[in-house]
Write a structure and sequence with these properties.
This protein is of the alpha/beta class and about 160 residues long. The protein has one domain: 3-Layer(aba) Sandwich (Rossmann fold), CATH 3.40.50.620. It is about 40% helix and about 15% strand. It is built from seven helices and five strands. It has a five-stranded parallel beta sheet with strand order 3-2-1-4-5, with helices on both faces. Helix 6 links the parallel strand 4 and strand 5. Helix 5 packs parallel to helix 6. The termini are far apart. The model has no long low-confidence stretch (mean pLDDT about 90).
């Protein structure tokens, strides 16, 4: 089994992980998202996020939670998205999440980060409350070029032209 799969933590293991975390990996940086069809923009942003601290924990939105906010998605299932993220050098840990606020409470990151299109006020209220409650700093990262929606549109356009 590839060693990067050890970076994927089941939800039921998060409490034990938090209790046993080595102080040398602080500050822990957390981000959450869909990460459907991993592309260079994701890799660039994740590297920038990792550089904010000593370790990067990525919460991957579950298939159910992605479908609620992005009709017709995800393209890749949650397990595939978790594996792709875990294979990246910049990512320290990965866990599939239903609700990012729950993950914030469970792992108590030092820093929570998102792309620059997510001002604090645009986060769901539950995430704002979790960040305030845990004392995590909120840091925006300028978005790198590229997004999954544009990739899907290009694929569909090319498919129509090739038929």
């Amino acid at each position: 089994m590839p060693t990067f799969r050890k970076k994927i933590l089941a939800r039921e293991d998060l409490h034990q992980w938090r209790r046993s975390i080595d102080p040398s990996v602080h500050p822990v940086v957390l981000t959450c998202g869909c990460f459907d069809l991993l592309h260079p923009g994701h890799a660039i942003n994740l590297e920038k996020m990792r550089n904010l601290g000593r370790s990067l924990f990525v919460g991957v939105n579950s298939d159910r939670s992605v479908a609620l906010i992005k009709p017709g998605r995800p393209i890749m299932d949650q397990d595939a998205r978790a594996v792709m993220l875990a294979s990246l050098e910049s990512v320290t840990w990965v866990s599939i999440v239903e609700d990012p606020a729950d993950l914030i409470y469970q792992i108590k990151p030092d820093i929570f980060t998102k792309g620059s299109d997510w001002a604090f006020e645009t986060l769901p209220l539950s995430e704002q409350q979790a960040l305030k409650s845990t004392g995590a700093a909120y840091q925006l990262i300028p978005r790198a070029p590229g997004n999954t929606t544009d990739i899907i549109a290009k694929i569909l356009k090319n498919q129509r032209h090739s038929c």
